[in-house]
Amino acid sequence: MSNASFPSLRTSILIFFILTPILILNIKPVSAIPGVAVDDPSNQWAPYGPLVKNLQLKFYSDPQSEFADFIAGKIDLTDWQQSKTSFASYDNNPDFLLSPVQGQFGEFGIYFNGLDTTWAAWGCDWTLHTPYTDISGASHPYQTYSSACGINMRQAFLHLVDRPAFARDVLGGTAQALADPSPTSKDPSASPLSTQCSWDSLYPSTKYPTCLSAYNFADDPGGFARPGSVDFCAAADHMIMAGVATGEQPGTCILTGVNPEVYTNPIKGMIRNDDPRRLALGNGFMNMLNQLMSGTVVYPTYGTINKQGAIVFTDPPESPIDDWSFYTFAYGFGGQFPDHLFDLYYSSNASDLCGGPNNPEPDNPTFVCMKNLDNIVITASTTADISNFRTATLAAFDEYGKHAVDMTAFTMGIRLAALRSVAGLVNSRGISYNNPYTVLNAHKDPNFTPVNPIYAFGGGDPSRLRWGQAQPIFQMNIFHAGTEWEFQGMREIYDTLLAGSPVEIAKPYCWMCDTFTQSLDFRGDTHFVIELRQNLRWHDGERVDAKDVAFSLLAIRDFAPVAGGGLYFLKSVKVFSSTQLDVTFTGQSLVFPIDMEAYVIPRHIWECATDNTCAQSVSSKGTHGDYVAAGVLEPSIVKRSISFDPVTNGALIGSGPFMCRSIFPEDQGKVGTGCTKNDAGNRIGQSIPAGGTMLLQAFDFTNQPGNTDPFYQYMRSYNPSWGTGIGTNAFSGQFQEFSWADQNNDAQVNITDLVGVGACWHASQPTAQCPASQYNYWLKPAFHPDSPNTISSEVAIVAAHMDDSYVFPYSWNPPNLENITPFTP
User: Fold this and answer.
1) How distant is the alpha carbon of residue 8 from its chain centre?
2) Greatest C-alpha distance within the chain
């Protein structure tokens, strides 16, 4: 999960999918040409790149500031959805491109701190102090969100917000109300209306005979239940049932006989003020609650993630437990299925406060610790059957709903803006243009001339893509990063083992590997035997090997609560060779292949052996044996600490398409540092404020003086000039090299290709074994300028790509992935 405002949780799930292509929204198109829809055949994506040399990320205090710079021509690509009021002006601007509206894989709402002492001070302890053991055998000390009075109190809270009316009246029809903790664009999409209505103990009754949706008995224009309205009165009745008050005023239903402690122990409301939607939701809820209690019972704290993140998302030993009561949250989820429920609501993910290991930045920051919900989310996360998954997920929705765990309020219909001068935009399902494939494929459109020259690609620099970031960032340490914006830059620096198609998000394929096989052992555990690509390099030139992958999976599982959210069931890793390993998960699950879309970080940078801290770095979770079995050690306790800045310390080194490389004269060109600036242009570290920038450079050192490694570049790099130039520069463009090595054009390099080039080894002219067509195809004089007519090192180059493919287990030629760009021999 995340410690901030639009966290990036584990990507979601697998196999079959049902999609609501767009939300049912009150949006009328204007007479303009928007971008293409996700499933439009022209929405093509390529598994190679990047196509620009520089990627500049500029950070803003809020989306409105980002949009102002976009209108001023200062960025090419935005990362936040447009408001309905801007649709017409953007759609009618010939230099702007808005993606078509689609349902977002995200949700907004209000959630509560289940262990805040305020609730007991009000006269209602939300917790049942009864230990229990879940179906996995884990023990937990108590059940939160489970007392009858607590359920009534939260049901009162939910009646004060009319979520459908809020989406309609406050958000102008650009959002869809939610009752469940998952956006409706996922599968399953939502609890049936009859189920939603069954959650409320007041329905059906003589006083409340009608139910419109979850905790919503009547329409409340403006989105909030006013005094005297049906839902305001329902909220009062629930508060009386909770024991917080003894009566209510006739006509208004304002409570009377309120426990005096309510006014001396106010709710600590954390309300985000950098997003108008969350501000309106938080203020409205607070105002109605104050009116219900006929006094001030909410003390708000307004701020951005910079102020509130350290309060809401950190726990002992970093901060107290009960320093907040409610928070206006926003989550971003990947994928097609609601597999995030385990991360957010399983008790052991709530640090040692609910029976798990200590984690000061837990995945479950609201301390949801409920026996039935635990068992259901475990069941959903450990089934490989789609029907069973759907059944368990709907059961989880039901358990969540009847306990009124929190107030999931709405999901947005998203339209993102980019300049029309950007070619290669990829409209990803549930996300739009703001995705890694856009960054990998984007380049100047040679066929488009902007009407207004300020909207030229890169501001007139075709080598630079300018990407707006709607929030500042504070962490680029993989073990503590939590917000979407912190991961957006890191996704370009670190690669993932597998990747998912931006269109068919339920189809993961090999990214850093050539192949993987999935099987079950006699215990019922799932194994992935993975064969890595041969020519992987870190940005500092070191080789990426199977121990790097093993170290990354274990370290991120144990110490990175957000990045490792999908690795909870990772059991063990065995390394067979420098390129082969066996990754084992406990049991079976639909999501395990998706969970393999995990970041890979350099062992030679992060392992405890690098700073002699191994004795102190052993995990308290009892997992040291997992590292020993994999032939690796834990990450350094110093480097995995929240205070370790990888930018300042020259450790922001990955194997991805872009690298952090110093732009400052004192260490210009040094990898892992010197890529961030504040708004004054001064050098800074990982914390980038509003107005600051991060400049990433394409990973390719083949033209570096003195370099002798032809693979010192991104493993999927793209350069049409491959096969020309001098020295290792002739090898720049690994996609082109792969395509050449694949002589029979089946998008994989195999023995047929190796035999073909081998027949021409040492040929200086066509021969019987190497006819003219073969000789002319294989000969690349730039590889051996001293003997330009003799085929020699070409054989070694093809052998170095043996078994390489780009989208295993899928086919690229002929293609069986939707909208993948045609393979170009």
Assistant:
1) 3
2) 103
Amino acid at 34: P
- Helix (H) or strand (E) holding 151, with range, is helix 148-159
**What is the C-alpha separation between 360 and 278, in angstroms, rounded?**
25
Q: pLDDT tens across 641-694, in order?
A: 999 999 999 999 999 999 999 999 999 999 999 999 999 999 999 999 999 999
Chain centroid to CA 785:
47
Check whether the bond before 472 is cis (ω within 30° of 0): no
Distance between CA 387 and CA 700 in Å, rounded? 46
Q: Are 9 and 346 in contact (CB under 8 A)?
A: no
How far CA 131 is from CA of 68, 350, 351, 355, 664, in Å, comes to 54, 15, 16, 10, 57
Cβ-Cβ contacts under 8 Å for 355 (sequence gap 6 or more):
138, 139, 140, 141, 347, 348, 369
The token pair that represents 543 in the structure block: 């080789």
Contacts of 146 (CB under 8 A, 6+ apart): 126, 127, 128, 370, 403
The pLDDT of residue 418 is: 98
Helices assigned H by DSSP within 680-783: 734-741, 751-758, 772-778
The answer to whether the CB of 38 falls within 8 A of the CB of 21 is: yes
Whole-number pLDDT of residue 173 = 85
pLDDT tens digits, one per residue of 609-623? 999 999 999 987 789
Bridge pairing between strands 247-248 and 175-177: unpaired
CA distances from 809 to 41, 580, 817 (A): 22, 17, 10
Distance CA 71, CA 775 (A): 54
Question: So what's the pLDDT on residue 825?
Answer: 79
The DSSP letter of residue 357 is: -
Closest of 358, 360, 363, 361 to residue 377, by C-alpha: 363
- 62's tokens: 């809020």
Question: Is residue 403 a contact partner of residue 370, using CB atoms and an 8 Å limit?
Answer: yes
Handedness of CA 158, 161, 162, 164 (dihedral sign): negative
What gap in Å lies between CA 411 and CA 404, rounded to an integer? 18
Residues 6+ apart with CB under 8 A from 449: none
What six digits make up the tokens of 287?
């105002």
| Structure tokens given for 708 | 């002798």
Q: What is the pLDDT of residue 546?
A: 98
Label residue 524 exposed, middle or buried (CB < 10 Å: 0-12, 13-18, 19+): exposed
With beta carbons less than 8 A apart as the criterion, state whether 185 and 19 touch.
Answer: yes
Low-confidence ranges of the chain (pLDDT < 50): 1-31
Q: Quick one: pLDDT at residue 6?
A: 33
751/735 Cα distance (integer angstroms): 19
Q: Which of 177, 44, 55, 49 is nearest to 107 (CA)?
A: 177
